[in-house]
C-alpha cells in the first residue's frame, strides 16, 4: 500500500524540479544529439535510479531496499506502479548492453514517468518527461566491418533505419558498401548479401568502376520477420568479389598490369533502431 503524508507532494515537487533531476534530462538529450547512444543509455539508467530515490525520499511507505538500477526498477514498477509488464520491458531494454536505441529508451522512460504520475496521483511528475523527438537521433552511423581486397579498402555498413513493407511482410534493410583506394579505372566488383539467420543469399550484383579511386553502392535486402531477433537484431554477411589490374614492375623495370582477383567476407551484427511502415 502506498502511504503519503501531508508533506509528500511538496517534497516530490521540490525534488522533481531540483537541479539534479533536470540536469539528468539535459545530459540524456545532449548524449543523444551528439550520437553518443551508449552514454545516453548509461545516463538513462542513472536517472531512473535518481527517480527511485526521489520517490523513496517522499513516501512514507513502501520504502526501497536497494536503489541500483535493478532495485530502482523493481521498486518503482513492481511496488509503486504495480506494472510487471513495464518492468519486464524496461529490464529487457537494459539487459542487452549493445542495444542503445534512443527511441526505445525515451518511449519506455516516458511510460515509467506517466505510470508514476498516475500511481502517486502527482501531476508534477510531468516535468520529468523527455520531450525531444528521439527519431532524429536514431540515424547515426550504423555498425560496420571492413577488409582489404588487394590495395582496396572495403567497408560495409548496415543502416539502422529500416522499412517494414506490410504488403510483402518483409523488412527492407539497406546495406552500404564503400570501396576506397581503387587504382584500376575499370575495376569490377561483385556483391552478395547473406541473411545469417535464414542462411539465404542474394544473387551477385556486379558494378564496374567509373574511373575514380572510390566507389559507393547501397543495396536493399528484403528480410523476413523470422530473421529479426529481439530488439530488432539482425546479422548480415556481405561477400565482395574484386577483379582489377595492379601496376607492378618486372625485373627489367617495365610496368606490367597483371589481373588480380579475390573475395572477402564482411559481417555486421546490427540493430534496426528505427523501423517505419509502408
Give the DSSP E fraction (strand runs of 2 or more residues).
25-35%
Largest sheet: 6 strands, mixed
Strand count: 13
Low-confidence parts: none
Q: In angstroms, what separates the terminal alpha carbons?
A: 46 Å
Explain how this protein is built.
By secondary structure, the protein is an alpha+beta fold. It has six helices and 13 strands. It has helices at 8-16, 19-33, 37-58, 69-80, 84-95, 102-119, and strands spanning 144-149, 152-158, 161-165, 170-180, 188-195, 200-201, 205-208, 214-223, 233-245, 248-249, 255-256, 259-271, 274-277. Helix 3 crosses helix 4 (69-80) and helix 4 runs antiparallel to helix 5 (84-95). It is elongated.
Give a summary of the structure in a few sentences.
The protein has about 280 residues and is α+β, with helices and mostly antiparallel strands.
Amino acid at each position: 500500500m502506498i502511504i503519503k503524508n501531508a508533506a509528500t507532494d511538496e517534497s516530490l515537487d521540490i525534488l522533481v524540479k531540483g537541479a539534479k533531476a533536470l540536469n539528468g534530462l539535459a545530459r540524456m538529450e545532449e548524449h543523444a544529439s551528439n550520437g553518443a547512444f551508449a552514454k545516453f543509455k548509461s545516463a538513462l539508467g542513472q536517472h531512473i535510479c535518481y527517480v527511485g530515490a526521489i520517490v523513496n525520499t517522499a513516501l512514507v511507505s513502501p520504502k526501497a531496499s536497494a536503489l541500483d538500477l535493478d532495485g530502482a526498477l523493481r521498486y518503482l514498477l513492481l511496488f509503486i506502479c504495480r506494472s510487471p509488464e513495464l518492468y519486464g520491458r524496461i529490464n529487457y531494454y537494459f539487459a542487452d548492453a549493445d542495444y542503445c536505441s534512443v527511441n526505445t529508451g525515451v518511449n519506455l522512460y516516458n511510460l515509467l514517468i506517466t505510470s508514476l504520475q498516475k500511481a502517486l496521483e502527482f501531476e508534477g511528475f510531468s516535468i520529468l518527461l523527455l520531450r525531444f523527438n528521439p527519431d532524429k537521433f536514431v540515424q547515426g552511423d550504423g555498425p560496420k566491418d571492413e577488409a582489404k581486397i588487394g590495395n582496396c579498402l572495403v567497408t560495409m555498413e548496415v543502416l539502422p533505419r529500416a522499412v517494414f513493407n506490410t504488403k510483402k511482410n518483409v523488412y527492407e534493410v539497406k546495406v552500404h558498401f564503400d570501396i576506397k583506394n581503387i587504382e584500376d579505372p575499370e575495376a569490377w566488383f561483385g556483391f552478395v548479401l547473406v541473411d545469417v539467420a535464414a542462411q539465404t543469399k542474394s544473387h551477385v550484383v556486379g558494378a564496374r568502376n567509373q574511373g575514380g579511386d572510390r566507389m559507393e553502392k547501397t543495396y536493399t535486402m528484403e528480410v523476413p520477420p523470422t530473421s529479426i531477433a529481439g530488439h530488432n537484431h539482425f546479422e548480415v554477411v556481405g561477400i565482395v568479389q574484386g577483379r582489377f589490374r595492379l601496376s607492378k614492375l618486372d625485373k627489367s623495370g617495365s610496368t606490367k598490369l597483371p589481373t588480380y582477383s579475390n573475395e572477402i567476407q564482411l559481417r555486421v551484427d546490427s540493430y534496426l533502431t528505427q523501423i517505419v511502415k509502408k
